[in-house]
Specification:
This protein is mainly β. The protein has one domain: Nucleic acid-binding proteins (OB fold (Dihydrolipoamide Acetyltransferase, E2P)). Helix content is 9%, strand content 45%. The protein is built from one helix and five strands; from the N terminus they run E-E-E-E-E-H. The longest helix has 8 residues. The radius of gyration is 13 Å and the shape is globular. The N and C termini lie far apart (35 Å).
Length: 85
């Protein structure tokens, strides 16, 4: 798997999945269970992320181990980071 950066194209919190586009505009399916930041179960359109690119058995592009780049800043702003406890 290759480490990638991308932008959330869209994400449905209700359905628990969405798509991330890389710098070449290739789309990767992302499931909420792949969001690695504690307490995050949704992503926002336009949000920058890093992820591992993978393929499923049918050759579809998947985003694994997704890390929202602004998650640390949001945790600190909300006072939920371990350092702030």
């Amino acid at each position: 798997m290759a480490k990638m950066t991308g932008t959330v194209k869209w994400f449905s919190a209700r359905r628990g999945y969405g798509f991330i586009s890389d710098e070449t505009e290739k789309d990767y399916f992302v499931h909420f269970s792949e969001i690695q930041t504690e307490g995050f179960r949704t992503l926002k359109p336009g949000q920058q992320v890093t992820f591992e690119a993978a393929e499923d058995e049918q050759g579809r592009e998947l985003a694994k181990e997704v890390y929202p780049e602004d998650a640390v800043a949001e945790e600190e702003e909300l006072g939920t980071s371990e350092a702030g406890l």
